[in-house]
Amino acid sequence: MTEHFDLVIIGAGPAGEKGAAQAAYFGKKVCIVERAPKPGGAAVNTGTIPSKTLRETALYFSGLRQRGLYGIDYKVRPDISISDFMHRERTVVEAGWQLIDENLRRHGVTVVQGAAHFVDPRTVEVVRFKEEPRRITADVFLVATGSQPARPPEVPFDDTIIVDSDSLLRLAAIPRTMIVVGGGAVGCEYACTFAALGVRVTILNDRPRLLAQIDAEVSEALRADMTRRLGISVHNDATAESIAVENGLAVVKLADGRRLTAECLLYSAGRTGNTAGLALESAGVKTTARGYIAVDDCYRTSMPHVYAAGDVIGFPALASASMEQARVAMCHAFELKYKERVSHVLPYGVYTIPEVAMVGETEESARTKGISFVVGKAGFRTNPRGQIVGELDGFVKLLFRPEDLRLIGVSIIGEGASEIIHAGMACMMYEGTIDFFIQAVFGYPTLSDSYKYAAYDGLQRLSRRISGRTGLPKIG
């Protein structure tokens, strides 16, 4: 017997869950199919939530948050074990499972556990061990199967010495030394987390700087902080010619002839779309060589009734954006007239130590686009809250247009950056100017108050650039 739904979703990660809830909220009969025993996708099970929880655990055990406060020095607790390290991560992940289950149940979504593949453009078959295959048809499909770490054939993954970001979480013990191949968000976050626990970490980055998409000044500040505070050795423009396991150690040979060894190597250079096994060709849906699904502005695939959202479509591959993509996709699929598009203003946070966050343009992207801008900066060293919490090296950096003061970009480095970025995001979303920060009253003492002084700094720079400009507020 074939069951029929208004909507069938493949994948119960952030995009799948929120797409299901959006359609069900408007009365649609929804089924969500998840291959894994538990929902949440990479965000809950192997990526976003676990990595950030492990970061908090590392900060707790290391005492790193107390750096320089009250004469306390940064020192890793000597009695830490792998079970200590992973306990909090497991608790938070289990809470995530429960919250997703409650949300889907509250919206009346049918949940089917098993591996789905398309039989034809309107039918999927769900296979589960020791059960008869189950066929389900639908008017609309949403593919939200996410992505997975790239595993090039030349890298000898054994998930013990050579690991990716998924198998890293299953390490039996904390290594004493680690090589991280890749200078992107995942590599930098895990490098900081393990370095905070006393692991001697080396990053091999084949690009000129870490986190190439963020502001270059922020990237350099992060590199300096990671080196000085955590002892991480960062090698930019470093290409790994070969990776091997020799005598129980990971061995990397670099293009310049150097040879590096470590007890563990994390390979985090790229991801691929989770589309293998879906038989998308049976539905007429096209994918790229890296397994990603091409979609239009409404998140329709090459088949108009099949939509895709989240990491499976590639950039920007953020859980926050994935949720909104799925909601917007369902609004278009069922003509709900509720959400027409995903906001073009997307905050981006990286949970390194310290955190970095950005929204909008950087100096480099603005120059590439030929956008004229002025910079305003304020450091946490001159901020009372920064002094209180010992966050002295961070700063807020604003970019705004000189002709109308409109805010076009914000970059922040420092603890809490991923939280306070949203003030800048809100200003940009409504096409605000830096006058918002001048006129607004910020709580005192707060790190967010740095926005005001970054705006003042920007106005000073602008006044020096344009002599005789009137109407500029006095510096306070």
Give a short synopsis of this structure.
The chain is α/β, with parallel strands linked by helices.
Q: Which structural traits does this protein have?
A:
476 residues, alpha/beta, 7-stranded mixed sheet, 12 helices, globular
Question: Would you give an account of this structure?
Answer:
The protein is α/β, with parallel strands linked by helices. The chain is 30% helix and 23% strand. The protein contains 12 helices and 22 strands. The protein has helices spanning 14-25, 41-45, 48-62, 82-106, 185-196, 216-230, 319-333, 363-368, 384-389, 417-429, 435-439, 450-465; strands at residues 3-10, 30-34, 110-113, 115-120, 123-127, 134-143, 147-149, 162-163, 177-181, 200-204, 233-235, 240-246, 249-254, 259-262, 264-267, 271-273, 306-308, 348-350, 356-360, 374-379, 395-400, 407-413. Strands 1, 2, 3, 4, 5, 6 and 17 form a 7-stranded mixed beta sheet that branches. Strand 18 (348-350) and strand 19 (356-360) form a beta hairpin. 47% of the residues are buried.
Tally of helical segments: 12
What does the main sheet amount to?
7 strands, mixed
Structural class: alpha/beta
Q: Using only CA atoms, what is the Rg?
A: 24 Å
% residues in beta strands: 15-25%
Low-confidence stretches: none
Mean pLDDT: 93
Helix content: 25-40%
Termini Cα gap: 73 Å
So what's the overall shape? Answer: globular
> What is the number of beta strands?
22
